[in-house]
């Protein structure tokens, strides 16, 4: 069976794939039945009429050209492969913001040594976790272990050390902090709006390590401008990689911004693990097994 | 029995004390046998010839005038009463520094959107925790739960999800990060020197939420100047509250500084819990029980 791979993978993983597939990297793709990709263009898809399975190396699948993927082609993502990396990042953002470490360290840097705003305690406080996939559920467990009263929001109930709700309002009302780890689908696009953020406390911390588009941009901008003690900390931006388009956020003192690096940017270790997991899932499929993380097409189209 | 209290405590806690003691707040202290204090001066001590027990409301006891406390007077601290608050703060500092959140958010603030240094993963990495009291052991548990390989350093072995060592060199050698939560005693003053910090990785993160004086000031300054990727994040400073004397640290991009606020600065909730714990311990002593956190005099003199 022919497999199309459109990015560089470590030699030994390529050798492993070679035991199950004939790997092609370009040229004639007419006999390709499976693809291992990070991104995929409509042009590449058009060259693969026999394609039956797409294994994506990233966790998110929102960047695929879904309209061009025929309905009989199964698409598998790679959720969980870099969840550790993202959870650590989300907790760092949340705790440093909630404990006012960013606030005080920026003041100290400016030579202003005054203490003014209190440093609250997270233990016992309501914290919302939006999305209970690999990242959300691991973040929720870590926050519960620190003593927070965690509310988990998702479409489908999932058990864990949290109170489950499928109502966003219930998750955010009165919350001291929130972590957003929702995937971007047609159901979640623009889901978190001003009126939801406004249900949180005046000085709440909202952390986004999922996709920017899950949050309504104007709603986020309005809340940080209206509430100087509200902190919006995000690794993802609506402009995707052209960050200058979201510069009005970065100038605000109550915005903590990082340039889409939470997934282990530049970390060979994380990337290697992601490719390994993707290769393993692909081989499961090729061997007649049941691959993990197969997307629901109707979530995207 | 007469009890001397030298700071404001909530009314209902004072009423509780009133059921066990005759509370005095000044004037004639000659019949005082116990004291509940935050600080204590040699002058106050001189007025209390019948003093037998001092309950301090803070966890640290290094600020007491030990030379003026007679050897027969027992001194109890309040370790653990604000441990939650400090642990959350230490984790926020450590994770935000280790995941390069400070680095990238400062860059974004300046309009520099370039990605350069990688964002590493903590899971699987060696992290040292110095001091295994309430704060150290809780921080160590949280780090172990995130998958870090935790090395716990203390004088006396304590079991937990860490490798114990009583050798500082062993704890720090090759470590990616360290949290210092040692008490300041005559044994720990100046304990962590340049040669110890230099055993850590080039880009390691050292977090101090204990007492500044445990770390040698010149050693810390030398390491952050020599190693631009080393991060020194601290809530405590050698100048204590006159932060301007340590300003040369705050100007460095690889120093994260906060103004001694980790213990829940300004948080009524934390303060209330501290006073409650101190009152409970004092009543245990007055009722003939065994009070917690009794200091070893020889650690200070």
From TrEMBL, chains A, B:
GO MF, one example: NAD binding
Its taxonomic path starts at:
Archaea, Thermoproteota, Thermoprotei, Thermoproteales, Thermoproteaceae
Q: Which residues form the D-isomer specific 2-hydroxyacid dehydrogenase catalytic domain?
A: 38-294
Q: Which UniProt keywords apply?
A: NAD, Oxidoreductase
SUPFAM superfamilies in the cross-refs: Formate/glycerate dehydrogenase catalytic domain-like (SSF52283), NAD(P)-binding Rossmann-fold domains (SSF51735)
Q: Which cellular component terms (GO) are annotated to the entry?
A: cytosol
Where is each D-isomer specific 2-hydroxyacid dehydrogenase NAD-binding domain found? 91-262
Q: Which residues cross the membrane?
A: none
Q: Please give the Pfam families that the UniProt record associates with this protein.
A: 2-Hacid_dh, 2-Hacid_dh_C
* InterPro entries the UniProt entry points to: D-isomer_2-hydroxyacid_DH, D-isomer_2_OHA_DH_cat_dom, D-isomer_DH_NAD-bd, NAD(P)-bd_dom_sf
Q: What is this protein called?
A: D-isomer specific 2-hydroxyacid dehydrogenase NAD-binding
Q: Which organism is it from?
A: Pyrobaculum neutrophilum (strain DSM 2338 / JCM 9278 / NBRC 100436 / V24Sta) (Thermoproteus neutrophilus)
Q: Which family does it belong to?
A: Belongs to the D-isomer specific 2-hydroxyacid dehydrogenase family.
């Amino acid at each position: 069976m022919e497999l199309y791979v459109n990015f560089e993978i470590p030699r030994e993983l390529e050798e492993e794939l070679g035991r199950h597939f004939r790997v092609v990297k370009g040229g004639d793709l007419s006999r390709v039945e499976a693809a291992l990709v990070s991104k995929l263009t409509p042009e590449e898809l058009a060259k693969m009429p026999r394609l039956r399975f797409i294994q994506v190396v990233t966790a998110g699948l929102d960047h695929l050209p879904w309209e061009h993927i025929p309905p009989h082609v199964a698409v598998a993502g790679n959720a969980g492969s870099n969840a550790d990396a993202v959870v650590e990042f989300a907790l760092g953002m949340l705790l440093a913001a909630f404990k006012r470490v960013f606030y005080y360290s920026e003041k100290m840097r400016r030579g202003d040594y005054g203490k003014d705003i209190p440093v609250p305690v997270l233990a016992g406080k309501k914290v919302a976790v939006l999305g209970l996939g690999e990242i959300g559920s691991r973040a929720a467990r870590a926050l519960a272990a620190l003593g927070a009263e965690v509310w988990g929001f998702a479409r489908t109930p999932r058990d864990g050390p949290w109170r489950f709700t499928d109502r966003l309002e219930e998750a955010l009302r009165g919350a001291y902090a929130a972590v957003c780890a929702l995937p971007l689908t047609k159901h979640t696009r623009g889901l978190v709006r001003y009126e939801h953020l406004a249900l949180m406390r005046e000085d709440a911390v909202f952390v986004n390590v999922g996709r920017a588009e899950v949050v309504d941009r104007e709603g986020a901008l309005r809340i940080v401008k209206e509430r100087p003690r509200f902190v919006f900390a995000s690794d993802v931006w609506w402009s995707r990689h052209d960050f200058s388009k979201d510069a009005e956020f970065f100038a605000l003192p109550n915005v903590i911004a990082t340039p889409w690096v939470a997934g282990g940017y530049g970390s060979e270790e994380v990337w290697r693990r992601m490719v390994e997991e993707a290769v393993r899932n692909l081989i499961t499929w090729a061997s007649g097994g049941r691959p993990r993380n197969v997307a629901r097409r109707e979530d995207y189209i």
